[in-house]
Design brief:
The chain is built from 15 helices and two strands. The protein has about 325 residues and is mainly α. Helix 4 packs across helix 8 and helix 8 runs parallel beside helix 10.
């Protein structure tokens, strides 16, 4: 009983911290950013403060819901899908109702994979690539498991059950770097040769349609998130740049090689060879879905100077702060 009360107290403490940090960050957005990013402030002067309070409470509530490992994977997918639905609903409103629902008042292609490539097309850093890098630094691979509005559909296509057909690491790496290089070269060519925007838009649209095709055909067929872990240029960068963040995920010596974790991993990050090495493959997104199915306590988060459990809870809180802020401000 004493242990259960202690765990509940830790959950409440984490929820309060998540709520306070979320409220503080969104308050800075409300005060400092003009024109306002918070939609409630755009629709009603002063309404942004109400949105800040509601978002902070929502973030704390989510922490309590996801504090339990057994429920975390289900809630992660639920709120991630919610984020994607809200994002695309606001996009539809921005196109068909009022541009107030668009972040800048201008329409851009809602393709996350083009965010890092856009730097080469425009020849300058903008807000979204900067946010992309900050997210990787502070939450590791969370962009690909909870913060990308496209990724939610890839995860959904991969499904909960069924035999997962992985992709050989060498094959995956070859595809990823080839696609990334092709995207960058095309973006540079469009800028250097001053290709009209209409043609650049058609190429971007084709890239997006190809991504959707991979989700529908490959991810659904292989039961893995093939778009995020193999095709998406943003996903490729996240996989390697996440090592600049302090977060790590490891397989400890309690592992019995039962492979239960591999069967639930939608990112094909826990094949036998990776488990034998004691760490997931490079395409691990730190989502933590595998934690609940491991009966031996063999999987753990790591962070400088913290116990694995403390690292796990810190990662959860950090990711939920990002998620709640993204839900509040992310629009095209």
């Amino acid at each position: 009983m004493i242990k259960n009360n202690h765990v509940k107290k830790e959950g409440v403490t984490g929820a309060v911290v998540t709520m306070l940090v979320t409220g503080a960050l969104l308050s800075l957005v409300q005060v400092m950013v003009r024109p306002p990013l918070l939609l409630a402030e755009r629709l009603l002067p002063g309404g942004g403060w109400l949105q800040v309070v509601l978002a902070a409470l929502f973030g704390g509530w989510l922490y309590l819901k996801m504090f339990d490992r057994a429920k975390r994977a289900v809630w992660r997918r639920r709120i991630w899908l919610l984020f994607s639905v809200v994002f695309f609903f606001q996009l539809a409103l921005g196109i068909f109702a009022d541009t107030v629902f668009l972040m800048s008042g201008k329409l851009h292609f809602p393709i996350p994979g083009l965010i890092p490539v856009g730097v080469f097309y425009r020849g300058e850093m903008s807000f979204m690539p900067f946010l992309f890098l900050i997210t990787i630094l502070l939450s590791g691979g969370a962009w690909c498991s909870q913060l990308c509005y496209f990724g939610a559909w890839d995860s959904l296509a991969a499904g909960k059950n069924g035999k997962r057909q992985g992709i050989k690491p060498g094959t995956r790496a070859g595809i990823r770097w080839t696609v990334l290089a092709a995207f960058i070269l095309v973006a540079l060519g469009l800028r250097l040769f001053h290709v009209p925007v209409i043609y650049a838009s058609l190429i971007a649209a084709f890239a997006g349609v190809a991504g959707v095709g991979i989700i529908v055909l490959v991810s659904r067929g292989r039961k893995i998130a093939a778009h995020c872990s193999t095709y998406c240029p943003a996903g490729t960068l996240v996989s390697y740049l996440k090592y600049i963040s302090p977060w790590r995920f490891r397989v400890n010596d309690r592992c019995t090689r039962c492979m239960a974790c591999s069967r639930v991993c939608r990112y094909d990050a826990l094949p036998r060879e990776s488990i034998l090495k004691g760490r997931p493959a490079v395409n691990c997104t730190l989502c933590g879905d595998c934690l609940a199915v491991c009966r031996h306590g063999a999987l753990e988060y790591r962070f400088w100077g913290l116990s694995p459990l403390a690292a796990e809870r810190l990662w959860l809180g950090t990711t939920l702060v990002f998620f709640t802020c993204f839900l509040s401000i992310a629009r095209v």
